[in-house]
């Protein structure tokens, strides 16, 4: 159920009754699902090890762990796959989230109060240097120095996305809710829409992700103002991160609130992360939910006629095999695979 609020529901009798009343009054809406495939390739003697299963987010699963089929091939290939509904992020915001997540795993007894958790999170943001990123964050970990980011629009062709050098965190957003219910995309003016080739407004069932960048925590605090927003970078059907060789030995990533520390090869290996559309699921939305769908904006025919799957039918897809039988969740499996079971 999509509430997009900052407060978690309580477990006492009155809170449960109140929550059930919200369910009763909610409406059904479709939201996009998104596949994510991550492939690591590195020489056999590379110090870059795959991620251990306990360190993976619940929505990301190891697809295989084996050398390539050719015995003469000196490279190993590790592939992970999963999915999300809300967002995928990479950079310093994920770094702070990972620090918080690690502390909570070590001392779960200290993380039972929401207000206390928020204070701890703010403290970690300070100690991790998120508020003074220009002083404590190496330039090599800025997004533009870390990876080449490619996007695919309706044309079905990959194009390189220009990212300002100051961007230290990037978010691929499906729902207008991030970091406690804030909306990083905001509402662009019509002039900015035309200038940046943006589809307006961002909808949760249009087959598009909103890609937003942040410079530091102060930039993120702008979201608290009525018209605040991050740096709008693009709207796309697919997003692909190709990590640059030797930029750093790890990067922090986060998917629907679950962070992990991603090893990166410093030798001839490579890591590629690709996000693509995976159909839709139904969800209940409360009456005050800010998320909107295509049917809420019938006056936008250019948006309502978008069918993202149709532009990929004739493409050679390197990740086709990995997208089958996605993870453990039925929602992230191709329909043809589900029907065979």
TrEMBL record:
Pfam families: DAGK_acc
Keywords assigned: ATP-binding, Kinase, Nucleotide-binding, Transferase
Diacylglycerol kinase accessory domain span: 86-259
Lineage top rank: taxon: Eukaryota
GO molecular function, a single term: ATP-dependent diacylglycerol kinase activity
Kinase found in the keyword field: yes
InterPro entries reported in the protein's UniProt record: DGK, Diacylglycerol_kin_accessory, NAD/diacylglycerol_kinase_sf
Protein name per UniProt: Diacylglycerol kinase accessory domain-containing protein
